[in-house]
Amino acid sequence: MNNFKELSFKTVTYIASLFTIVVLLGIIFSIFLGGTPVFQYVSLTKFLSSPSWHPTHDPPDFGILSLIIGSLLVTAGALVISIPLGLGSAIYISEIASQRVREILKPIIELLAGIPSVVYGLFGMAFLSPFLIRIFKIPTGLNIFSASIILGLMVVPIISSLSEDALSSVPKSLREASLALGANKWETIIRIVVPAAKAGIISSIILGFGRAVGETMVVLMVAGGAAQIPSNIFQPVRPMPATIAAEMGETVIGSPHFYALYGIAIILFVITFISILITEFIVMRKKR
Amino acid sequence: MRRIIALIAVLTMVAVPVFAGKDNKITISGSTTVLPIAQACAEIFMDMNPEVNISVRGGGSSVGIAAIIAGTADIGDASRHINTKELNQARENGVNPYENIVANDGIAVVIHKNNPVHALTLAQLKDIYTGNIQNWKDLGGPNLPIVVISRDVSSGTFEVFNTIVLQNEKVLDGSLMLASNNAVATTTAETPGAIGYIGLGYLNDNLNTVQIEGIMPSKQTIQSMEYPISRTLHMYTNGAPKGLVKEFIDFILSVEGQEIVEEQGFISVD
C-alpha cells in the first residue's frame, strides 16, 4: 500500500514537471514558428539594424533597432534606480536592522512586488508624468526617465529580497571573525559580507534585469511609445514588449506585420534567455 | 501571455465555423471601435428575441473584414472601408462584401486647454504630424515645442487619421504612440504643448477642441461629412443581409438602435 502511494506520488510530480517542460518547449517552438517568416520580407541584419518601424505604412518598414535601444535604455535606467535602493534595503534589513524593524520592513518591501503592473502604470501616467513636466519644464512626461523610475520601483523588491537572502545566508562565523580581528560593522559589511554574497547579489540583479526588460504594461503606459532613437533621457521611446502588446490585437494573423511582432518576441526571448543562463552559470560556479 | 492570446485567437477563428449553428446564431467580429455598438445592440436584441444567440468579438477592422472573406463570421465590423487588396481576396473566395453603414464617427483634434490656437487647416495638421512644424509659435501660438500624440499604427483611429490627414505619409518618429483614446485624452490634458486626436465621445472640458478647415466637429458637421476628419462605421456582410442578420442590422438602424449608437458616444446615421 505504502509502495503504491509512493509510486503514484512520484508519477504525479513527474508528470507535473514534464508538463512544465512541454509547455515551455511549445512556447519556444511557437514563437520561432511565428517569427521566422518575417525574414522573407526583411533580412535579419536589416530587421536588427534599421531604426525605422512603420509596420502599417505602404510599403512597410520593419526595423527594430529603435525598439531594442528603447528597451535597453529604460531597463538600464531602472537598474540605476533599483540597484542602490534594493541593495541598500537588503543590507539594512539583513545586517543593521533590529529583529522588530526587520519583521515590519521585509513584508512591506515584498508588498511592493504584489502591486499589479497596471497600477504602477497608472501612477506613472496620471501622477509622475504631469509632475515631471512641472519640475523639469520638459515637453512630455512620458519618456525614458519616467519609465525608468516606475520600472525601477518594480524591480526593487526583486533585488532587495533575493540579495537579502544571499546576505543572510553568509555564515555568522565570517562576521564574528572579522569583528574579532578589529574591523568595525561597516568594514565587516562592505569587505566581508557583501563580497561573500556576491553571486547571490549579481543573480538578483540579473533577474531584476529580466523582469524590467520583459515588463509590458508599464512601458506601454509610461514610455511614450515613440519608435525613435532618443537623444536624451527626456524623450519618449517604444520598448519591444509595448510594441507587441499595442499592435498584436489589431494585426491580421499571417500578415508580415504579425510575423514581425513575433520576430520581436524572438529577440526579447533571446535576451531574457541569455540573462537567465548567466544567472544559472553564476549560481552553478558558486556551488563548485 | 501574448503567445497564449494569439493561440486562443487562432483557435477561436478555427472553432467558429464548427460551433456556429446556422439557425439562430449570429457571430460578429472586427473593429474595436464598432464593438461597443455591436455589443450593446446584441444584448437588447437578444432580450427581445430570447431564442437568438449573438456572439460579439473584437480583433480590429482588418480581422472583421478577414472574417467575412473567410466566412468565419456573419458580420464583420470595420471602422474603415474595405480596401482593394481585400476586395480582390474576397472575389477570389467567391465572397461579395456588402457595406452596411451603422454609425458616423468623427475624430476631433485636441490641444491643451491653455493653448490659444483654435483653428488649423488639414495641411498644417499634416505638417505637425510629419514633423515639418515643430513649434506652436509657427501656428500663432506660444513659443512651445509641439508634443505630437498619435494612436498606435494598427488602430482603426490611426488608419482614418492616416488616410485623411497624413495621406499615407509616415508619422513623425518622435511622436507619442498611445494605446487608447483615453490615454490620448489624459496625456493631452496634462501636457501643455500637446496635440492629439480622439473620438468625439472622449471630448471633455480639460481639452480644447480645434476647428479643422474652419469647422468644429459636431453631430451635424459629422453627419453631413462637412467636418473633414469624419468617417462612417460599417458592418460588412457577405452579400446584402438576409434573414436573422438582416433583422439585427435593421434593429441597429431603427430609432431604438440609433439611440444606442448615440449612448455609446457615436453619431447616429442621418
- Which regions of chain A contain 5 or more consecutive residues with pLDDT less than 50? none
Please trace the helix and strand order of chain B, writing H or E for each element.
HEHEHEHEEHEHEHEEEHEHH
Kindly report the oligomeric state of this protein.
Answer: heterodimer
The top level CATH class name of chain A = Mainly Alpha
Short description:
Chain A has 288 residues and is an all-alpha fold. Chain A is built from twelve helices and two strands.
If you had to describe this structure to a student in words, what would you say it looks like?
The complex is a heterodimer of chains A (288) and B (270). Chain A has 288 residues and is mainly alpha-helical. Chain A has a single domain, classed as MetI-like (MetI-like fold). Helices cover 76% and strands 1% of the residues of chain A. Chain A has helices spanning 2-35, 44-49, 65-96, 99-114, 117-136, 144-168, 172-180, 185-196, 198-214, 217-222, 240-248, 256-287, and strands at 53-54, 61-62. Chain A has a two-stranded antiparallel sheet. The longest helix of chain A has 34 residues, at 2-35. The relative contact order of chain A is 0.15. The mean pLDDT of chain A is 91. With 270 residues, chain B is an alpha/beta fold. Chain B has two domains: 21-104 and 232-263, D-Maltodextrin-Binding Protein, domain 2 (3-Layer(aba) Sandwich), CATH 3.40.190.10; 105-230, Periplasmic binding protein-like II (D-Maltodextrin-Binding Protein, domain 2). Chain B is built from ten helices and eleven strands. Chain B has helices at residues 2-19, 35-48, 61-70, 84-92, 122-130, 156-166, 181-190, 219-223, 243-253, 255-263; strands at residues 25-30, 53-59, 75-78, 97-112, 119-120, 147-151, 176-178, 194-199, 207-209, 211-212, 230-238. In chain B, strands 1, 2, 3, 4, 6, 7, 8, 9 and 11 form a nine-stranded mixed sheet that branches. In chain B, helix 9 (243-253) packs across helix 10 (255-263). Chain A binds chain B through residues 27, 30-31, 34, 51-52, 54-58, 66, 125-126, 129-130, 133, 139-142, 220-221, 224-228, 235-236, 238, 244-253, 255, 257, 265, and chain B through 2-3, 5-7, 9-10, 13, 32, 58-63, 66, 144-145, 147, 152-156, 158-159, 162, 168, 170-171, 173-179, 183, 186-187, 190-194.
